[in-house]
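Translate structure to sequence.
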């Protein structure tokens, strides 16, 4: 890659500003001052600008947060703290936003990114990316929920949900794992209201094949690597097998 492009990609400066830095002898490559903006460089070269080592940052950043209750999924809010306030300074980057909304009282996995296209893929019902929630209900789980959800629940306003999967969590009366493939407003709560039950607690445990790591405390973030982001988009397999795996990892 050209030296001026490398520096423009890795810093907030424009290519013409970088050219001025080069002219003013403020750029070195492997310890030598370089005066040509079109010098060919690679990530292996040690490049400095005004004495500071510059590394190429990946274009997009993907972060998962274990959201605590009490925070809203927004970049700004006048009355409540936002999930963005939980991102530590070293993970901050331009243009980050929460990809999807959990309610203020919902806990668990939130993806925060500056990759709009990726966020759209995760959220669009067209792509069917599964979102897994651990639900605690006010009244006992009923076996009929399994077929009702598979048919598609009709919400109180007449909206029909896409088929969803549910399974009772073994050794509990009123806890279930539910898998949705879309994200309507307050969807899980409205689905259980339509079934005559009520959601007491809601915790998102996974998106696609990416499960919230057991060792990520509430309120903490983790930068994702390539493999993790691929897991979000790679999904399939049997819901019950997954329930077993998720249950094992969250118990
Ligand atoms: N469904 C809900 O009702 N609330 C959430 O936060 C997420 C899904």
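Result:
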């Amino acid at each position: 890659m050209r030296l001026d492009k490398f520096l423009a990609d890795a810093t907030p400066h424009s290519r013409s500003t970088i050219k001025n830095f080069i002219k003013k002898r403020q750029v070195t490559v492997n310890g030598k001052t370089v005066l040509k903006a079109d010098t060919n460089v690679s990530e292996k070269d040690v490049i400095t600008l005004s004495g500071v080592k510059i590394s190429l940052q990946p274009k997009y950043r993907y972060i998962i947060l274990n959201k605590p209750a009490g925070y809203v999924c927004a970049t700004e809010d006048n009355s409540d703290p936002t999930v963005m306030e939980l991102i530590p300074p070293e993970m901050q980057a331009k243009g980050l936003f929460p990809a999807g909304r959990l309610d203020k009282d919902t806990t668990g996995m939130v993806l925060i990114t500056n990759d709009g296209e990726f966020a759209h893929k995760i959220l669009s019902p067209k792509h069917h990316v599964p979102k897994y929630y651990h639900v605690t209900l006010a009244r006992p789980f009923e076996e009929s929920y399994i077929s009702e959800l598979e048919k598609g629940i009709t919400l109180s306003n007449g909206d029909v949900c896409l088929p969803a999967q549910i399974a009772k969590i073994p050794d509990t009366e009123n806890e279930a794992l539910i898998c949705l493939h879309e994200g309507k407003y307050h969807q899980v709560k409205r689905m259980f209201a339509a079934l005559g039950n009520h959601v007491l607690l809601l915790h998102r445990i996974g998106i696609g094949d990416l499960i919230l790591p057991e060792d990520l405390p509430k309120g903490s973030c983790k930068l994702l690597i390539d493999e993790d982001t691929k897991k979000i988009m790679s999904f399939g397999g049997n819901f019950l097998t997954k329930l077993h795996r998720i249950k094992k990892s969250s118990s």
